[in-house]
User: What shape does this take?
Amino acid sequence: MNLRSSLIFTACTTTAFVFNEEFEERLVYNTREMWAPIIDPIGEPMLKAANKTYRPAVIVHGMGDSGTNPGMKSLCNTVSAKYPGIFTLCSTTADGAASITTKMDQQLEDLHNEILSHPELSQGFNAVGLSQGNFLIEAYVALVNDPPVHNFVSICGPLEGEATCPDNLAFKLICPLWKLDPYGAPLAFSGYWKGTKDRDEYVKKSQFLAKVLNELDTKNETVTNNFKSLNSLLMIEATKDTMIEPKDSEQHGMWQWGTAGSKAPIVSMRDSDGYQGDWIGLQTLDKAGKIKNSSFVGQHIRFTSEYWNDVVLPELGNYLEDK
Assistant: This one.
């Protein structure tokens, strides 16, 4: 019996997944194409206004990546290169295999503790997420938001969830385990799974995503107000993305309930029940001009230095003194 078969057998017979070091290394290795790209600084530093303090920035990595990997470090370094003196946290919450094998509620607790450990963030911060890191930020805004997020930049994030297990190398080892208990498996992926074929099952079984998107029958006013407090929400989609399915989730779209698959009809953000009911404040933000959409041609988080400099960095150049 090979390692993968042995792991699945263990999961079936004990209802618990046992990950050994070799398996975790393979999980992380398979995600390497999803890690943050190495980005170069472009242009001259911005001149800081007198007697003002740049609002800090928090950048959260995606699945399998690490806050200390070269790509993530390059992203964080460009922020301070553009805005000298800014405090930037290159988050190390759930680095490496932990980003895959740690459930999202625990990752949220760990991120909150990491943020609280830095007094520089106590007055709030701008947040940038990559891939799965966006769902972690989205969950932070919904369920914590203390200290608050000001501008939220989501790059290829599963903001409305993931509605299929992607057929690619990164998920080759994850999907067989996830299928044993889609909503309850001790995997990060289960935290943002949305089975669009059965809405009732989703509302009943979703342990995390339904809370974050305020999709349970009883609405949480705190979640709504937390999202409404955002100054800006920039949602960025990769036009050729095959990691987030449907890729429309990156801009709060999703397959229509009762359907699934590449030919399923897409319900756009503004046509969704969540938008119409303002469950997480999207309608409020939109009418106030606080929602922005952008896209780049390419695969999952394969943006260029120019795109990062022109589209993302301007969202981080504001001051704590600005309301």
